[in-house]
Amino acid sequence: MSDSIQPRNGGQILVEALLRNAVDTLYCVPGESYLPVLDALCDTPSIRTIVTRHEGAASNMADAYGKLTGRPGICFVTRGPGATHASNGVHTAKQDSTPMILFVGQIESRFKGREAFQEVDYAQMFGGLAKWATEIDSIERIPEIVSKAFSIAMSGRPGPVVIGLPEEVLFGAAQIVDAPAVRIAQGAPDPSSMPMLHTLLAASKRPLVIVGGTGWDLEATLSFQRFVEANDLPVAASFRRQDLLDNRDPHYVGQLGLGTSPKLLERVKNADLLLVVGSRLSETVSQGYALIESPMPHQLLIHVHPDPEELNRVYQAELPILSSMRGFTAATEKLQPVDGRAWQEWRAAARADYIDHSTPPQPHPQLAGVDMGAVMAHLNKVLPDNSIITNGAGNYTVWVHRFYRYRQPATELAPTNGAMGYGLPAAIAAKLHAPERTVVCFAGDGCFMMYPQELATAMQFKAPIIVIVVNNGMLATIRMHQEREYPGRVSATELTNPDFIAFAKSFGAHAELVERTEDFAAAFQRAQQAGVASLIELRVDPKQITPQSRLD
User: Fold this and answer.
1) What pLDDT is recorded for position 3?
2) Domains, the chain, ordered by start
3) Are 392 and 419 in contact (CB under 8 A)?
């Protein structure tokens, strides 16, 4: 070992490894189990440390960062309870294919197996949740393990990595050579795939593209748009991936998720070819693996995905194409366009159906409170194209997915695993990453109360987000299922809420209550001009359970 290399403790070595891999932000709840890391961050102003009020919020912020940037969101939590709280975001990152690295403090190795203070076996706990769960067993291996973590998190189908940090590894000292930044290889289709795709597409009469997944950058989305336009193809977005193609584009025909148009579902059934790019065709997208049947869809399937373990795992494709999104879309630039006149009417009809379905209808004559359709119509008109919309889970999201029209990539932050509480932490992470952009969080009254304390984080780090709390006094999604399965038997779904306005103001946030539709526009404008985090509570009709359904 060269004498020129100064001894450093494990925390310093770890933070240097993060710097070398271009980390600029991390999210955490501090813990004594990783004090050397916190100390090293004192000397590292280029890494912004965002301290949250709950580990679940920290891991959700890391997921949101990963979605926005394509780089791993970095999260630090302490051992035991810190790790179990943070598992929420790890599950989201796994199902959403988001690059993330969760660092967790760990007990001293010599105490293992005694149920020491906050002891947890992270490999066992996170083994089914993460792409890789490991523990650094010696200080010398820190650069190696961190480099491997970045590679795994970003390669193939992106996902979360969990790394345990034993105390003796962080507090110990050694002379260590740092590893260089990780470089990620971009896969491309094999030479025979694209001519075959061209042949199958040219023979089709009713093609439909389904776009989704992660690993998209601006170059890939622009190339994809050119391919779609050149071949006049109809494009449906998979669940919560509506921002991959401008919804105003005449080729966009809707989303396959919650509140999907029945006409679009019928169109998927009647398609003779599905070109699936990036999506893994999850349970939600495939409507319980029935709309697109597993293992053999009745539609001819071309499936493009970056992970060889995903191809043919659930669906047997006529043509599986192993490729990154950048590699595939670059390959489409070299294809001669096919003659799309055979499906011109098919595409135009699908687009007309989308416009009809995504245009808010007149409110129900007995509607009480704020009309969510009108709220979404107003936001479509006034929000800048690059505005970021976040949400968690609940029936309120159906209005967002159905009526809001996304115009640019990286503007939709929503968990495909249906995690409640995601929207507020995600909005804070988004605003801190892109302070010049408008960030609007939608949350139901139940969803918001999962991480409401993160308003303190928004105020502390000066993130002027706008939170819209849709208050109907119930857990509406579960109530909807109850009414379907057990009519009139209400159990465990009614909510007693705090005064949301007083609650938000107690943090120093701007807050307003809106009870009439006509008052929303002015309230939203005031929130935009407030200069601090804002909350708008919308009192909505509890009977209006979805845009098309009422409890009565």
Assistant:
1) 60
2) 8-174 (3.40.50.970), 193-356 (3.40.50.1220), 360-550 (3.40.50.970)
3) yes
